[in-house]
Design a protein that fits this description.
Number of domains: 2
Helix content: 25-40%
Largest sheet: 2 strands, antiparallel
Number of helices: 5
Strand content: under 5%
Number of strands: 2
Order of helices and strands: EEHHHHH
Oligomer: single chain
Shape: elongated
């Protein structure tokens, strides 16, 4: 073992006499004690239930943009023949399709959650919610409702900006 200290009168004086011969044993003991202290001193924190929207797309415009723009201009526009809730009630409570909106009364939080399932945040233009009613893209029992030049298309994409 290397001696630490100053030479005084021909001999080295050891300043670490308590640790002499301990080597790596000391460091592993200290680490073990610290680990036990950390484990014993860390209480479990209840963060509540796991959110149900993990993994779902949340556009930057969020539910506010959905309520102010998507619902009135895309889902339920004034021209009822160009929306998801046409006179036949395609996607209303009695529509019987995969995408169902609550309209009596309108439940924006529920309806927003319903749309999240069909959104693609990575490539918004490939969202099923946009492609199904878009002319010539995906088959849609409710027929083509609009084209890429109609305002609904840009309103939808603006949701992701």
């Amino acid at each position: 073992m290397a001696q630490i200290g100053r030479k005084r009168g021909g001999r080295l004086r050891n300043r670490c006499s308590l640790l002499e011969g301990m080597g790596n044993h000391r460091s592993s003991t200290v680490l073990g004690i610290l680990a036990l202290g950390l484990l014993a001193g860390c209480p479990t924190i209840d963060l509540g239930d796991t959110p149900s929207d993990i993994g779902l797309c949340n556009p930057p415009g969020g539910v506010e943009y959905f309520t102010d723009k998507i619902w009135p201009e895309f889902v339920r526009p004034t021209d009822m023949m160009k929306g998801c809730l046409r006179a036949s009630g395609c996607h209303g409570e009695g529509g019987g399709t995969g995408l169902t909106f609550k309209t009596m009364p309108v439940d924006y939080a529920f309806n927003y959650r319903q749309t999240q399932i069909d959104l693609n945040c990575g490539t918004p233009a490939e969202s099923k919610l946009l492609q199904k009613p878009l002319a010539g893209v995906l088959p849609h029992q409710g027929m083509d409702l609009f084209t890429m030049t109609d305002p609904q298309y840009s309103v939808f994409l603006d949701w992701f900006k």
